[in-house]
């Protein structure tokens, strides 16, 4: 029987803002608590809502910083050392689990100060290069050596970080909440969607969800949709999200006279779930810097056919011709052709939706949490006496 652990989950990002790392930590914390482990979360956060988050230590005021083609809300305060040391001494974590452990300033400070238990790091990001890693290696390498085990969320993420910091990385993917993301009946969708967004029998819905910034590829999708509407009138495009390019996109659609495009801005969770269940095709036109296709998993779990770009992170979860179709990035003509093929073939969409549901089962959060716990046990075994290590390694093997 595995021991009950006291686990600290450390994030550099604003815990109260939507984001992939924050979602990962929320679900992992819930799964660990369901197994009776004690969990605390250390992350920047502001606002009254932080008081309602179970086990959250809000450390530092997050500020927006451009990074990797997007905006990261992190704390750059290096005056947290006394408070962090106090928390680490008070909690004496068995495992301190860092998400992006080499990001400033909270993770690197906590990694430097932790004198209890073991340190585990999960690397989420993927990019072609990282100047901070490149120029900061002499300093960061010393911190990196304090990690007792390393996790990458995908093969692209592993390949990226290992270029700068070679080590053994356990690939443990992001997860999907299958109770939340699931196919819904037309009647259920109708109760969840406002009237303007409800599907119409004569119009197939193409759905985009994402931040409206360059790397998400919405410009290519809008061009592809404009090409589609030159030859057919039986579809509409719903674009969910906001960002720096939204106003420009809306202006372009209006000037070009492209019909039936709806920009929703941010939507609440029920609306997002209903849109995922009711669209005919989910489109992810991203052109890079995605380490893993979480947004694809959400669509798969909802039983939708997918058209996406053939980038490294997406190829980890979607197989061309099975759960969806993959096309070259930034290629509006190929994107339009793939969307058209899906719209013309309801049986193909149904088969893709069924295959996606089956694939999503492999990424359920319960399974992901088991894999993370196995890494915890291996990390703890690596710093224990040999006779204890063998027992823990056997336990971790059984978890797998």
What does this structure look like?
- The two termini are 14 Å apart.
- Mean pLDDT is 91; it is low at 386-400.
- With 400 residues, the chain is an alpha/beta fold.
- It is 42% helix and 18% strand.
Radius of gyration: 22 Å
Shape: elongated
Q: Estimate the helix proportion, in percent.
A: 40-55%
Order of helices and strands: EHEEEEHEHEHEHEHEHEHEHEHEHEHHHH
Q: Which architecture of the largest domain does the CATH hierarchy give at level 2?
A: 3-Layer(aba) Sandwich
Q: Can you identify the CATH superfamily of the largest domain?
A: Glycogen Phosphorylase B
Helix run count: 15
Query: Please, what is the average pLDDT?
Result: 91
CATH class of the largest domain: Alpha Beta
Per DSSP, what share of the residues sits in E-state strands of 2 or more residues? 15-25%
Write down the domain tally.
2
Q: Which structural class do you get from the secondary structure elements?
A: alpha/beta
Number of β-strand runs: 15
Question: CA-to-CA gap between the ends?
Answer: 14 Å
pLDDT under 50 segments (min length 5)?
Answer: 386-400
CATH topology of the largest domain: Rossmann fold
Which sheet architecture does the biggest sheet show? 7 strands, parallel
